[in-house]
Amino acid sequence: MEKANHGEESPVGGEDIGAKRFADFELTGKVFVVTGGANKLGLGLAEALVEAGGKVYCIGQTPGPVRKEWRHAQERVVPEGGGSLHYRPHDPSEPDQLQQLIKAIAEESGRLDGLVAAEAYEENELDTPYRARLTVDFTGVVQACTAAAQEMMTRQTRGTIVLVAHLSSMVASRAPLAAVLGSLNAALVQLARDLATRWSPIHPGGGGGGIRVNCLSPGNILMGQTAFEKEPYLKEHWARENAMGRLADISEFKSAVLFLSSKASSFMTGSNLVIDGGRKQQ
């Protein structure tokens, strides 16, 4: 497999394996966009890419820089590591704005190596109207993927796209809006498969392609008490549902997104990585 101008290189062929520890996870010099990255899971995933040396642009609907958790994330950035964290606001009522933002980021940086689409986790409101969920959690993901892939293909970058879904795509639940959220997350898993089939093949003669598309499906996550104010029983109920008997912490998904966004997963596309604390085993 020939090497690309940017992005991932072939994992075989004369490389000095072992010369640098965890070199396959190295993201120094690479540029990423994380949608839904103003706070919570999206921001946590963005931090993982920064820690590996990536230049990461978080796109969010809420004013991320004014939030305490965003300021703390920026304070944790170690400049010597080569990574950096940036923010761009996005209004989901403006359908063309997201594409323009991603295009501007790629032009400003001269490249785009990856996208993490985590829109569904920017706000964890159980009573969010289903129409808003459709607009943000699916339509927004499709727009982000299309815009990112266009920039990667234009620059012949063999990049990565990670769609963040949820375990509800595979198991039933009695939680509020479960039917809507489960169906939407199942759609994201299928979207990753379809986009991988379309974008992962490398076009002959330097025509682009080689974009790996995968899905990350977390189990239930502890993201503050506000998610349980209206349905307090859910916290204990969800904890009992999995083999570990507890909810996940956001930090427990950082290594997964780094794996999917780096050379470490170079032969993986169209897959759904499930991290659920053993929920499916129950």
UniProtKB/TrEMBL annotation:
<dbReference type="InterPro" id="IPR002347">
    <property type="entry name" value="SDR_fam"/>
</dbReference>
<dbReference type="Pfam" id="PF13561">
    <property type="entry name" value="adh_short_C2"/>
</dbReference>
<comment type="similarity">
    <text>Belongs to the short-chain dehydrogenases/reductases (SDR) family.</text>
</comment>
<dbReference type="InterPro" id="IPR036291">
    <property type="entry name" value="NAD(P)-bd_dom_sf"/>
</dbReference>
<keyword id="KW-0560">Oxidoreductase</keyword>
<protein>
    <submittedName>
        <fullName>NAD(P)-binding protein</fullName>
    </submittedName>
</protein>
